Amino acid sequence: MKDKISKLRNLTKKYGLSGTVKKALDYIYSNYMVKLSLTERLYVALNRKKFIEGIDRILEKNSYDRIVVWRSSFGWDVPLYQRPQHIFSNFARQRTLVFYEVTRFTDDVKRIKKQADNLYLVNYANSAFSKLLFHELEKRNIPRYVQFYSTDWTIPAERIRQYKDKGYGIIYEYIDDLSPHLAGTTELPVNVKEKYEMAMSDEDIFVVVTAEALRKDVLSKRGDRRLIYSSNGVDYRHFHDEIVPDFELDPDFDKILQKGQPVIGYYGALARWFDYELLREIDRTGKYQFVLFGIKYDDSYDKSGISQCRNIHFLGSKPYDVLQNYAAHIDVLTIPFLINDITKATSPVKLFEYMALNKPIVTTDMDECRKYNSVLIGHSHEEFIELLDRAVSLREDKEYMELLDKEALENTWQEKAACILEELRRFENP
User: Fold this and answer.
1) 31, pLDDT greater than 60
2) pTM of the prediction?
3) Residue 304's CB: how many other CB atoms inside 10 A?
């Protein structure tokens, strides 16, 4: 309850009272109304045989070697298409049957919906239906797992232990520094803390890490048993081959392009780890137009005063399906983050997407960005701005374009999913 009160305070700061009330009502509806609905319970009970037959038809297919149940409140149809959708889409293509948790915030899934072959979206808040699903899963003599995010604060550690007691392998995705700022709370939520402690003390749990800093943390606490390194990656075809040449851009973006200056860009979350002062210094040069696509993760953008800068433009988020068409018109793509515990442990998804777009890349001195030869690293504000000039000059450099392409192809989501499955397979078939 303390975590939820803290979250509510932060939401009020961000959205105001009326906006927070709306979000709170949506949360109550999506997380509790289905659970409490007598109508839904009665409907599932009356149609029990039909639902069981439907689940069994899915399970009887000979197209998978294992089952993975994804339990984290990260919906499918969200504005920022991220790691979970990519990883589990690729799991499904690599002989893994996935039951992916959705939230009614973003997904119109009352019980279960087929998203793709071997990939089903499930509303686990519908406890009447999910009990049927788990009952049928547990009758199958096949490796099965429960996978969840380290940052998930909805499922208690005790629930994960119950899954383990029922024969599920546990996969803990350690994806970020465990910070209250990322959770949107004042203190680290109890469920996040307890699941982390459980994962660090139980060597039977598979731990997937996305960054070197996280890998070192796991090594220091439990060694390398069942430890898997799988950084973020890219859907190469989407960002390299699916750019529409005559795509109709928003008028506001088109006006910026018409100014004739080099366009510098960033897309993603705008949060307190973003270096707004660096953007202010870039604006003062008067040499570039800087475009920001994304969402305001917290109130840091509004407090920064960046909106008053003449050459900085916040244009909101763009759907994943068309994002590549906007990024294709930007001259240099950047990640201007502050360097702190959060960003030291971050593997930015956008980094690999930038590579696939074949756009010059400039970032601040982030650990996970240093690994790639195509990335220009600014160790100070002054150097970052100097590198923007160099990056602009690299736009037509054939060797540099080939380097970007090579590093993008080495970091596809297909490869990131495969290295996780390879480790699971090693223990399934000793």
Assistant:
1) no
2) 0.89
3) 19
